[in-house]
Input
Amino acid sequence: MAKITASVKESPVDYLKTFFGFNHFKGEQEAIIETLLSGKDVFVIMPTGGGKSMCYQLPALMCEGVGIVVSPLIALMKNQVDAIRGFSEHQGIAHFLNSSLTKTEINRVRDDISTGKTKLLYVAPESLTKQENIDFFKKIDISFFAIDEAHCISEWGHDFRPEYRRLRDIIEAIDRVPIIALTATATPKVQQDIQKNLGMLQAGVFKASFNRPNLYYEVRPKNNVNAEIIKFIKKNAGKSGIVYCLSRKKVEELAETLQVNGIKALPYHAGMDASTRSKHQDMFLMEDADVIVATIAFGMGIDKPDVRYVIHHDIPKSLEGYYQETGRAGRDGGEGKCLAFYSYKDIEKLEKFLNNKPVSEQEIGKQLIFETVSYAETAVCRRKQLLHYFGEDYHEDNCGNCDNCLNPKEKFDGQEDVLALLNSVSELKEIFRAKYMANFLSGNETADVKTFKHIDHPLFGANKEEDKDNKFWEAVIRQSIINGLVIKEIENYGVLKISEKGRAFMNDPHPIMLVRAHKYDESDDDDIISRQKGGGGATDQELFNILKDLNKKIAKENNLPPYVIFQEPSIEEMSTRYPINMEELINISGVGSGKAQKFGTEFIDTIRAYVEENEIERPDDMVVKSVVNKSGLKVFVITRLDQKMPLEDIAKAKGKEVNDILNEIESIVSSGTKVNVDYIIDQLLDVEYQEEIFDYLREMKTDSMDEFLSEFDDVYSEEELRLMRVKFISEMGN
Output
């Protein structure tokens, strides 16, 4: 093996002071650097924020030749190259080589390397495999190779990349100089896989503690998740944070929702063009944006020390991924809050993604997901469970900085329940999935249960109690899987089998503590919209009565029926949400900007006075605003009505029924927008008939559609009457 030759004889600490201005190394940085300088391979497992990059940056600056750093993300390379250049007078001291460069830029990089100006070169694994680059690297003096994010090598890692598996052969083809491999997340199995694949089983191994005492860990049930995220961010206003989502679509939607709620947020995902991603990353680093909403494509190696919170909108696919992403919080040792939202429905989605993969990949994916569920549903200290996963013992029972330690979950002895589950699985020949078994145990007469004629089985519903519903039994099943009593066979579509440990339990039952957990399953991805349409709490009856009287008063002044002003559901929501300005009023369902401007001022003034007089604390989520649906059936319908297109043609163009279009038109006029349906009505009804219906609508005291339709039953069609009501509200109220 080639020996690294340092260019001068000063110690690493002297170079540390000269280049970076620090007097002391962190942790085992100095020992790692000295081992590499001695010409030995090095394997570094160090949590995010531990100072991994210093372990190869400093020796590269100390040594003759160039240190080549293999890095998986272009954004990471740019960030680190900019940082190194900031410590030097010479721009050429660090470069990156990847697909983002032009031919001219590539030639400039090669010139700086050949003339000895460049000490650090960052390359993507794909660039390293190109023959022209291999030929070039063979001609230059290389001090060492650094493999950053080395967990990408392992199929058991959370971010496996096939091109990483070729690195050993390519490095040996160029020059077998020392290798330093670094990762922030590696279980014992992944560690072994990395060393074996890189041919560095004799390497000096340095493993720092995975414990980040400053990070607070919390898992919440995934209910009203967007509203919860908005409230959390607003309570941490002005602080930098990252919100992770599993899908690009969710990233875009959530970023927009945060923006309309006054939060400086930007999206980031691999589907965006490179210049936009780079711009958004720089805006976050320069604090022109407070929040980045991202897929896991964001954050690897981003050196921003003051990220104060990391939120997971969706539970990650693996604990490695979760640990690495949360590790981007509080890298300066300051506050770092890690909040994850969990629903078992998300886990089921992840499991479905595995169905079409080879059995070996399914097995790996299944085990990674299993560990994630175990972490999310655990009642023990989250820090203890995380560290155990990475092969580290944490001897404290209470860390004092996670939700389970600060607010312990209720536990109960589940011996009888687990035994009932195991007996039922055994009786039904171990051929059913979790959902079926939960229905069977709770006595739920589903179609499936009837099909298999299990309603008459003596164990069907035998343990049925008021508080032991499907969700209770699903939780028992999950915790039995976590405890190793039951096996969920993903290759057999999730069929439950009893493990050897489970059979031993059946033969010799003993107390087993289970958690009476939150009802994690009740997720609602459309929470913002649903909460907008139906209030977030109980209606204030006194305010409701006041607003109803006000509605009647304004109606009388305008010689209109009250429902033309605001309909009852809108008044109910006002009495729940207490809107006190025009922006908040427009956010009430059934209140468009036109109607709010026309009739809303008195409502706002009345509600504000009522809130102040009664010292009412308005719900936090009142300020949560939904994003307008720009795909816009509404816009399409209004445009086509202006063009006088027949209803049947409008419906056909959108693949809908005429009734659907009528519903949309009614919604449009109820919100205060004027529409023209005269061209349709005039073909259906003579003027005198229209006047007769108009007169009746003027006298109506309620907004009951049933009452209106029954009055003219067998005289006019429902479509004719609904169109007339649309015309009336549009002309008289909007």
